[in-house]
Specification:
By secondary structure, the chain is mainly alpha-helical. It has a domain at 30-118: Arc Repressor Mutant, subunit A (Orthogonal Bundle). The protein contains seven helices and two strands; from the N terminus they run ααααββααα. Strands 1-2 form a two-stranded antiparallel sheet. Helix 1 (13-34) packs across helix 5. The model has no long low-confidence stretch (mean pLDDT 89).
């Protein structure tokens, strides 16, 4: 019998990462929907949603913070507005610019998502132990911020 290609686990790393992401997103979506926050998708909307500041944010600032294209930011903002999570308003410092602000519904959804994520992480920390969970996050953070392609240059 051939030895597994991955001695520590039976599945390849990309599958494990994708599955872990799916577990978290499925749980977040279920909690958001159970609380009446329909239509919000963490992967699609969350990358922008979490960076909208309390006093509002400009679309171009959101593009810089998220690393997403301006067109993508504009599409996500339109979706958040259509879903009732955000609204546009005037920028008090620049009459030509608009700010994107969270609505009360958006603020409540953001709070619930943050709380749910902390709960999920707390369950894993309990299950695996604080030291092991912190080490896991540290390794993931290092991998995410130091891609192999960056070291090749």
């Amino acid at each position: 019998m051939a030895e597994p290609a991955h001695p520590l686990h039976a599945e390849p790393l990309p599958w494990l990462l994708e599955r872990t992401q799916s577990v978290v997103l499925d749980e977040l979506h279920a909690r958001l929907e159970a609380a009446g926050f329909d239509g919000l998708r963490v992967l699609r909307h969350g990358r922008v949603f979490r960076f909208i500041e309390a006093e509002g944010s400009r679309a171009q600032d959101l593009a810089i913070r998220t690393g997403l294209a301006k067109q993508t930011i504009a599409e996500v903002i339109e979706q958040l507005i259509a879903l009732g999570y955000a609204e546009r308003g005037p920028d008090p410092f620049d009459r030509r610019a608009k700010l994107v602000c969270l609505t009360e519904r958006g603020i409540a959804a953001q709070r619930l998502a943050s709380s749910a994520l902390r709960e999920i992480e707390g369950l894993w920390e309990e299950r695996f132990g604080a030291d092991e969970y912190r080490a896991f996050l540290s390794v993931l953070g290092t991998i995410a911020s130091d891609p192999l392609t960056a070291r090749a240059n």
